[in-house]
Design a protein that fits this description.
Elements: H1 3-22, E1 28-34, E2 37-43, H2 48-53, H3 57-73, H4 75-86, E3 90-98, E4 103-110, H5 114-119
Antiparallel strand pairs: 1-2, 2-4, 3-4
């Protein structure tokens, strides 16, 4: 499998996970493999009502906290998805959401340099 094909498979798998686990998927997903990291950008993840809540500081904090906890609760399953697709263990997992743009970034740090393996 090429790097681009694997990135597309990861995007597809995370979209499926979002729909099954969170109840709705993002509008756009882009995955990039860089050294020992899998970086996933998900756009359009907030609902219209969540955007409305984000108009206040308290609402933004609430949405960020709830959305973060939801993704964190699926951490083990996300790690398994990445391991199954890449063949590498997930060492660390980082995520954040922009309440302004409705974009989430997820970074999976892997046990080996996957980009190097795919290029050889």
């Amino acid at each position: 499998m090429t790097k681009g094909q694997l990135e597309a498979e990861i995007s597809k798998a995370l979209t499926k996970w979002e729909k099954e686990y969170l109840g709705r998927g993002s509008v756009m997903v882009k995955t990039d493999i860089l050294r020992d990291m899998v970086i996933v950008t998900l756009k359009g993840i907030l609902t219209p009502s969540e955007y409305k809540l984000c108009e206040t500081s308290e609402g933004r904090s609430s949405i960020k906290k709830i959305r973060c906890e939801l993704v964190e609760s699926g951490r083990d399953e996300l790690g398994k998805i990445i391991r199954d697709l890449t063949g590498e263990e997930v060492i660390t997992f980082h995520t954040d959401i922009s309440t302004k743009t409705g974009e989430r970034i997820i970074v999976f740090r892997l046990s080996a340099n996957l980009e190097k393996k795919l290029m050889s």
